[in-house]
Structures are given as structure tokens and as C-alpha cells.
Amino acid sequence: MKARILICDDEEGIRRYLQKMFLAKEYDVETFADGTSLLARIEGGTEGDADILLQDVRMPDMDGIEVLKRVKKLRPAMPVVVMTAFGTIDAAVEAIKLGAYDYVTKPFPKEKILGLMENALQLDLLMKENRVLKEELSRPDIPDNIVFTSAKFREVYDLTVQVAGSDANILVLGESGTGKELIAGAIHVNSQRKGRRFLSINCAALSDTLLESQLFGHVRGAFTGAITTQKGLLEEADGGTLFLDEIGDVSAAVQAKLLRVIQEREFIPVGATKPKSVDIRFVAATNKDLAKEVAAGRFREDLYYRLNVITIALPPLRERREDIEPLAMHFLAKYARRIRKNIRGFTPEALQSLQGYRWPGNVRELENVVERAAILTRGDLVTPEVLPIRPREDAPLLRPDNLLVSLEEMEREHIERVLRQTGFHKSRTAEILGISRKTLDRKIVEYALAIPGQGISGTLDD
Ligand SMILES: Nc1ncnc2c1ncn2[C@@H]1O[C@H](COP(=O)(O)OP(=O)(O)OP(=O)(O)O)[C@@H](O)[C@H]1O
């Protein structure tokens, strides 16, 4: 698709020169002789109908900087390149501060302006793609993908749909990997807010400072490294639903700030002075016993009551074994399709072994096990050999007494065992081991531990 360029300059000669040059490069071009007509065009247009603006900072009818400010307000994401005359470098600096992509000083060679515009358009395209990807990533598998046959889960699902419309905050409880995020997504799509955004954040995976800036956003210069103003998830999720995973891990300071958002429906971005108001439904989840955390003084009681207007408790997989087969078939179809293999199902022995296992990591562990099996299976049925679940793996490792191993080896084995037991849930593993998430990530890389679905860990990302 051709990019559409808006050009605003009071000199007719420049307008004609630029128009001819861009048309020759197959761009669509619209020209404007003053700020008023340019703003009228942008105001009347729709999002996405112009890709970039090339604007003179000197205008006959109004200050070019003022025009830029208004343009940025109307179309914050549209890249703007400003043209300045010799001796007006201050205006160029001001324009960049206000969010212009770059500037050129007149007179400019043709190649320079063409190159600059192409770069700006390229960057804009990347940013757009990035935004789409981010949205896709934050979207969980929703209803169609909730698989179950057990009466226990049916009860939970019915309750979910029933309370979804109420707009009350909801607390989802359940062991790691039981589908808490999936249920949060189902609450969102069954609510009035379904046209708006569903965003989620794992409160345990981030340091306090990072969590705060992710949630509340920050203004430029709020802390070292804050080179631009960044909107937080609260602002992004305005009108929609925000899923706070592992709420039980939030520090006292962030708990206080969250309480304020829920009570007053407003928050202050990090480094800002003025509050912003928001309308958000909160769905929080934890695998901790929050009531116990409250009793122990680690979680604010008032926040607990604000979040826990309604509770949905997800049963662990071992208490609803009827769901194992349909879930296994669902994941097998998903992963076989992804790797383009034709696998019909499981042999009776494989199925039996799936049904006999305790599933400490619940559905997430089952999904990982099936994904691995899909990769390793050669025929059209999954056999027990490719299922990395043996009753032995639940049992402690036995080793002849005379076989002495290093502390390191012990550490490696222990970390691996806990990872397995939690269904490769890193935050939970770190908690059990009494180390930070960061340390755990480092050790996973150091010991080259295999995380299902990720292969051998080579990065520090989750
Ligand atoms: N009933 C279900 N049907 C289909 N997929 C499911 C179901 N329950 C869970 N899953 C899948 O299992 C994985 C783990 O689920 P989810 O992330 O919702 O669990 P969670 O309880 O939020 O985990 P954690 O406490 O570790 O954050 C996801 O990939 C999810 O899609």
C-alpha cells in the first residue's frame, strides 16, 4: 500500500517541488499552505488515513510549534518531520522535544529528505507491528479454548459467566497452572467491557520499581533511563479489564497504590504530579492463601476485600481427572497442527499414564508434556515412551551411598525437581527455593536446564 504524506509549507515553490518528488516515488501526497487547513484536514480525517507529516516550523497564520503540538494531540502516533530554515535550530530542538521524528534544514538535497521520510515510515511501521503483537500477546486463549467435561469445572465456568456481567472485582484462586488467566479472559469477554482491552501483568515477575512503572506509567525523567513518557497498563486498560496475576507477591508500597486506584479510581504516574482517572475492572489471581497472608500482616486487609468481591476457586487437575483426556487431545491437536504432523491421538497405555499422574503443575504441565510428545512422536499415535512422566519422577532421587556428588550437582538436581513439581512455574519455584526469580533464571541458564516449550534455556527471559 502506498504511504500518504501530508506536506505543509507556505512557500508554493517548496510545496510543488516536494509534491513532484514524492509522487515520482509513488507516494500519495496532499499539500497545505497553512496551519489552519492542515489541522482541519487532520481533525476531519480518520486514524490511519495519513501516514506521515512533513511540516515547516514557520507558518503564516500560526506558530509552527503550536501546530505541531496540536497535531501530536490529535494523532500522537503519526511521525512528523519538520523543516527549518537556516538559523532556526532552536525551533527544531523544540519540535523534537515535542515528539517530532526528525528535522531537515532548508535547503536540503533530494536524497536527504527522501531517506529521512523512508526511515520515519519504516520506524512507524515497526511500531505499529509492535503494538499489534503486544495486543496479541496480551490476549489469552478465550472461551472456545476452555476445555472441560468435569462437573467440577462446569460449576466454575457457569459461575464465571454469571458474575462476569456484574462489574465487581474478582479474585481467582487456584494452584499454579489451573487456568486462572484463562478464566480472567473469560470474565472479560463475557462482560460489558469486551469491546475494550484485556491486559494482564504478572506481579511476581517484576521488581518493585519496574512493576510500578509498568502499572502506573512514568513521565520523562522520572528516573534514570526514563527517556520518554510511557503510559502504564492502568491507562492502557482504561474502560477494560486488568488481570493482576500473583497479586499475593505485591509489596506493601504497591499494595497501597493499587488500593488508591481501586477506591478513588485515579492514579498518579511515576514522577507526575497530577492524578489521572480510570475506569477498570480488576481480576486478581494468586496461588497463595491470601486470607492467611492478611492474617500474617503481609497483605492489606482493605485491599483484600476490595479485590475479593467475588471469589472463583479453580480445582486442581488431579481432582477432575475426567478433564485430562479432552485437554490432552485439545493440546495434541494444537501442537500437531503447529508442527504440521498428523497425530491422531494417544495409545491406551499413554492415556493411562496421563490419567495416573498427579499433575503437580496442573494444566500447564499437561500442555508442556503433550507439546513435547507431539515433537517426539514418529507415528500417528503418542506412546508412553515420549511422555516425560514416570511415577519415579515424583519420588525422591535415590542414589547409592557411595556415589558422592558435588554440591553443584545436588543444586542442579534439586532445582530441576522443584521446577518439575511446579509444572515449570518459575516464580513458584523461586519462592519454594527461597531465591529471587532473577537468580533462578540465572541458574537455569547456568545449568542448561530444559524448560518444556522453550527447549534448553539460553536466555534470561520467561
Ligand atoms: N480448561 C482449560 N482448557 C484449555 N486450556 C487450558 C485450560 N486450563 C488451562 N489451560 C492452559 O494451560 C496454561 C496455563 O493456564 P493459565 O496461565 O491460565 O494458568 P494460571 O492458573 O494463570 O497459572 P499461574 O498461576 O501459573 O499464572 C495456559 O496455556 C492455558 O491456556
Automatic annotation (TrEMBL):
One of its GO terms (cellular component) is cytoplasm. The keyword Phosphoprotein applies. It comes from the Bacteria. InterPro entries: AAA+_ATPase, AAA_lid_NorR, CheY-like_superfamily, Homeodomain-like_sf, HTH_Fis, P-loop_NTPase, Sig_transdc_resp-reg_receiver, Sigma_54_int. It comes from Geobacter metallireducens (strain ATCC 53774 / DSM 7210 / GS-15). Pfam families: AAA_lid_14, HTH_8, Response_reg, Sigma54_activat. One of its GO terms (molecular function) is sequence-specific DNA binding. It is found in: Cytoplasm. Keywords: Activator, ATP-binding, Cytoplasm, DNA-binding, Nitrogen fixation, Nucleotide-binding, Phosphoprotein, Repressor, Transcription, Transcription regulation, Two-component regulatory system. The modification 4-aspartylphosphate is found at residue 56. Residues 4-121 form the Response regulatory domain. PANTHER family: DNA-BINDING TRANSCRIPTIONAL REGULATOR NTRC (PTHR32071:SF95), TRANSCRIPTIONAL REGULATORY PROTEIN (PTHR32071). One of its GO terms (biological process) is phosphorelay signal transduction system. Its main location: cytoplasm. PROSITE patterns: RESPONSE_REGULATORY, SIGMA54_INTERACT_1, SIGMA54_INTERACT_2, SIGMA54_INTERACT_3, SIGMA54_INTERACT_4. CDD domains: AAA. Residues 146-375 form the Sigma-54 factor interaction domain. Transmembrane segments: none annotated. This is DNA-binding transcriptional regulator NtrC.
